[in-house]
Amino acid sequence: MEKNLILGIESSCDDSSIALIDIKTYNCVEYLKISQEKEHCEFGGVVPELAARLHTAALPKLLEKIKQHFDNIAAIAVTNMPGLSVSLVGGVSMAKALSVSLNIPLIEINHLLGHIYSLFLDCEAKFPLGVLLVSGGHTMVLDIDKDKNIKIVAKTGDDSFGESFDKVAKMMNLGYPGGTVIENLAKNGTNKYNFTIPLLHDKRVEYSFSGLKNQVRLAIEECWDLSQTDKENIAFSFQKAAISHIMDKLSKIYEVKKWKNFGVVGGASANLVLRQNLEKLCSKFSANLLTAPLKYCSDNALMIARVGVEKYKMGKFISYQNLEIKPKIDKLCL
Ligand code: KG4
Ligand code: ZN
């Protein structure tokens, strides 16, 4: 019988996840994830050593649950870039061990491509496409042409969009990750602080969130006893400035690129206020806004398996000896 599944493995940060996807139909056969959010929460961010230890415990447990499918796995797709090295090594080691013991080929996967393909989990991918990638580690605007060549049009020079939510939450002792907490608090807030939008009158098409984070820090320091209302107003004012910054630069890029299809991906693409702003921008240019299902915005192995299908069809395998972890990347390609 022809093997029909790709196994995806993801462990680039604080989520251990595996998934099985059908090569022909893109049907998700299994999807499992153990998130470490609870364990990192008290530290206000990801603690690398703890993440590594938790991946080592979680990944074999997940694998155990899908072993009835081992005979049908045609290839193993594993995230090996970019990410925390001590986290990446967990998934890559397991992929290598499995590849050798079951004699299954390996495919290396760029985590960021995974996020892009979260737009096409159960269907053919369609390009050309403009993409806003907003996660805990990255903030980028990407231009993907019809041949799937990817150009980075804008990126952040310091913190990422998601990371700035995490840092603002940490400053108010709201735990980790901060995205959803801040978005929820903002629902009851007002723009009391009217923070300055970063790089508003600057011609550079790039992002920066560290100055905004400092504005928030100063505002917090001025409220010597931070009330619930203060937190709500700070969350509202911060989120408004951060999203205005994203939209200000993106609108300028859009005037030139005029994409007919535009996607938003990454953990922070779950932010509904951001999505509403993007809807408006896309409708102004009569473009379609593509989003991933909320469940698959944050890190997951299904998106990794989905890129795996793409590379499997292109015959892009990598040998056991050549599969390395690459914590940083300088270019993005399939
Ligand atoms: O893609 P992801 O799961 O992990 C990385 O690859 O980094 O993204 C996680 C990030 C965290 O920084 C989290 O705070 C942020 O996404 N995030 C949000 C929201 N939900 C998650 N940021 C803003 N608003 C949200 N609703
Ligand atoms: Zn991610």
TrEMBL record:
Binding-site positions, Fe cation: 111, 115, 299
Alphabetical list of InterPro entries matching this protein: ATPase_NBD, Gcp-like_dom, KAE1/TsaD, Peptidase_M22_CS, TsaD
Gene Ontology biological process terms, A to Z: proteolysis; tRNA threonylcarbamoyladenosine modification
Record note on cofactor: Binds 1 Fe(2+) ion per subunit.
Alphabetically ordered keywords of this record: Acyltransferase, Cytoplasm, Hydrolase, Iron, Metal-binding, Protease, Transferase, tRNA processing
One Pfam family it belongs to: TsaD
GO MF entry, a single one: peptidase activity
Cofactor: Fe(2+)
EC class (word): transferase
Domain Gcp-like: 33-305
Keyword check for Iron: yes
Catalytic activity entry: L-threonylcarbamoyladenylate + adenosine(37) in tRNA = N(6)-L-threonylcarbamoyladenosine(37) in tRNA + AMP + H(+)
Cellular component terms per the entry's GO annotation: cytoplasm
Keyword tRNA processing set for record: yes
Job of this protein: Required for the formation of a threonylcarbamoyl group on adenosine at position 37 (t(6)A37) in tRNAs that read codons beginning with adenine. Is involved in the transfer of the threonylcarbamoyl moiety of threonylcarbamoyl-AMP (TC-AMP) to the N6 group of A37, together with TsaE and TsaB. TsaD likely plays a direct catalytic role in this reaction.
Protein name as it appears in the record: tRNA N6-adenosine threonylcarbamoyltransferase
Organism: Campylobacter ureolyticus ACS-301-V-Sch3b
